[in-house]
Specification:
By secondary structure, this protein is α/β, with parallel strands linked by helices. The protein is built from 9 helices and 6 strands.
Length: about 220
Amino acid sequence: MHSLEKWLLPPRCVLTGELADITDLSSHVIQTLERPNQVCPRCCEPSLQGDLCGACLTQPPDFSRTQVGFYFAEPLDKLIYDFKYHQKPSYARLFAELLVCTLQLDNVEALIAIPTHPLRRRTRGYNQAELLAEALGKLLKLPVIKRAVIRIKHTPSQTHLTSVQRQKNLKNAFQVNPERLTGLSDIALVDDVITTGATMQQVAELIRKNTSVKNCQAWSVAKTK
């Protein structure tokens, strides 16, 4: 049905309006998207020759690997902003189609979307990370485990906070439901953007301490430089 849809209604670039090949972005626009290169495989921060960085060697995070499609820069930043704040839930499929081409699945068995607080979800109408995880799950044929982690603390936006402020802001913000993760060993946390990695760290740490999950990856469409 998806192939038939694309034949009847060929994709058009959401930025230029021109006909596209596979996704709703033209091949020219896709080529301009900046991709992480020579980064630490664990945290995706710059690292010569793509080796583990000093921070991950001395104080490794609770996620075992970070996979990011692109950097949070023009023109992708506008699309993500519209996805998150301007009622563009349909962009989830576009981002999933872009991201899936860059991922290495390893042994990932299931996906978990980074949760939002019910108040924020009610205001926005959806959790953009959950929409992204569901679109990825369909493409990768992986289950999305819902309510494995819930957000119990309504925190201010993290957009303009420093790394230390983000960590304090997220303290006791999440709660894990171990029963939802019974029998799983390798999972991936999914979000739209990674900035400092503080959110991924908080959730991964909770999962590591309270479940039998051994490996937790961090996946996102984009990462800030």
